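Q: Could you fold this chain for me?
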Amino acid sequence: MARRSKRWSAARGVVDSEARYTLDEACGLIKQTSTARFDESVEIAVRLGVDPRHADQMIRGAVSLPHGTGKTVRVLVFAQGEAAQAAEEAGADFVGADDLVQKIQKENWLDFDKAVATPNMMPKVGRLGRVLGPRGMMPNPKVGTVVPADRIAETVRELKAGKIEYRVEKSGIIHASVGKASMTTEQLQANIGTLLATLMRMRPSSAKGAYVRGAALSSTMGVGVRLDVADLIRASEEF
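A: Sure. Below is the predicted structure, expressed as structure tokens.
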């Protein structure tokens, strides 16, 4: 059994592993137990009552968090002409076409977090599927990263501000970054409530039984805090 740090053990002493906490309580505990020397990220894991093997139960999309993730997001845009100019003006970190495709292919260059493309660029960008796909960085219309030229600027601004992607795993769990430990409990609650409200709206009609079956919050170096599902759903109704 791996040895736990004194910090982790102290945090475990504060959090009851068998309890189910309200969203307000959980956010407070996350802040209380996030004592690393850096600003820890906060992540939520939500277990849904879906079977991703069925196409109609594959929950996937993107949502803009009201207070962002607290992270600096480097955005790359594959575009030409006016779309490229709009991307640059909106704050994209890297903008190009064939030059960026070749740089990624030949140098395995991946110094960015999100990639966006206009539809006309996808035949060329598609060649990067084996590199970007496994890393979740491939532009995809389902998550709003393949967009027409007139939406490039808006998309870049949303991603820079904290728009996140989510996708249910084979086990039926969605993991998503919802902020930083330095955020207020109110900001964390708003981000989590917005994500949950989005997931609730995406409930497939074919999903049977309870839809949200469990959820937990955790920070980078902290312990997991289990959430009271009924309270979480009530909180999401505000967003």
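A (continued): The mean pLDDT is 93.
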